[in-house]
């Protein structure tokens, strides 16, 4: 037996110790958009796990999430800092991000060693909006929305098709001032509507508008007619 391989943690999700809810899919999608993240949990004000996703052991995830929720509670009670929005804890073997949510809930993400802390605000915004919709939370001051989107690029890495089914786009220009390893483009759809597209370091794309709301059914019928690049 390859002992080095046997010592590595499995990348398969372990057997769940609780029935999955609709939140599990939202949490799993978040992990796919955060490089280095391997597990996350939604916890309530008392530190109880509502649901979780990832390849961590359920017991370990729940204990970690409960402790991070306690730290957020302590910071909230301290008061001098105001209401904490998130905390980051870096360890030698793994790290944690805790995000405050409405109604006393919190989102806790577990990160592998050497995972960066430039965690995508877009990924969190998408996840937190989806959680709020599913839970029926009232969000008083939502962040500027971002929407995950499928993007095909040409040889120069410039978008030419977005969405699924695909819609052809015309690049109007590049977005400047983005963080290192991010690329952005302003594009125009056949309808004349415009989108800002941003590709993050994990090669995940986001749009600043909901494509489905911008593309009427009549244009959707033409979606398959897109240029082909090889």
Protein architecture, described:
This protein has 230 residues and is α+β, with helices and mostly antiparallel strands. α2 packs antiparallel against α4. The longest helix is centred in the first third of the chain and has 21 residues. The N terminus and C terminus are likely disordered.
| Distance, first to last CA | 42 Å
Rounded mean pLDDT is 83
Q: Give the fraction of residues assigned to helices.
A: 25-40%
Structural class designation: alpha+beta
Can I get a quick summary?
By secondary structure, this protein is of the alpha+beta class.
Essential attributes:
alpha+beta; 5-stranded antiparallel β-sheet; elongated; 230 residues; 7-stranded antiparallel β-sheet; Beta-Lactamase; disordered C terminus
Strand and helix map with partners:
Blueprint: H1 3-7, H2 22-33, E1 37-43, E2 49-54, H3 58-78, E3 86-90, E4 94-100, E5 106-112, H4 121-135, E6 147-148, E7 151-153, E8 159-162, E9 167-174, E10 183-189, E11 194-199, E12 205-207, H5 211-214, H6 217-220
Antiparallel strand pairs: 1-2, 1-5, 3-4, 4-5, 6-12, 7-8, 8-9, 9-10, 10-11, 11-12
């Amino acid at each position: 037996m390859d002992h080095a391989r046997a010592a590595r943690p499995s990348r398969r999700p372990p057997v769940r110790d609780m029935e999955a809810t609709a939140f599990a899919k939202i949490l799993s999608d978040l992990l796919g958009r955060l490089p280095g993240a391997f597990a996350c949990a939604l916890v309530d004000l008392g530190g109880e796990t509502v649901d979780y996703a990832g390849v961590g052991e359920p017991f370990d995830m729940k204990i970690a999430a409960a402790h991070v929720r306690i730290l957020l509670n302590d910071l909230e009670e301290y008061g001098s800092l105001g209401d904490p929005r998130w905390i980051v804890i870096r360890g030698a073997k793994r790290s944690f991000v805790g995000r405050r949510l409405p109604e006393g809930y919190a989102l806790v993400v577990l990160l592998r060693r050497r995972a960066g802390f430039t965690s995508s605000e877009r990924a969190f915004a998408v996840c937190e909006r989806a959680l709020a919709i599913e839970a029926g939370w009232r969000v008083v001051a939502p962040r500027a929305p971002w929407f995950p989107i499928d993007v095909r690029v040409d040889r120069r890495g410039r978008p030419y098709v977005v969405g699924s089914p695909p819609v052809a786009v015309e690049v109007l220009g590049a977005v400047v001032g983005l963080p290192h390893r991010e690329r952005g483009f302003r594009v125009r759809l056949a309808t004349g509507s415009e989108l800002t597209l941003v590709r993050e370091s994990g090669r995940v794309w986001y749009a600043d508008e909901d494509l489905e709301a911008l593309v009427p059914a009549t244009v959707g019928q033409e979606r398959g007619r897109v240029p082909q690049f090889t």
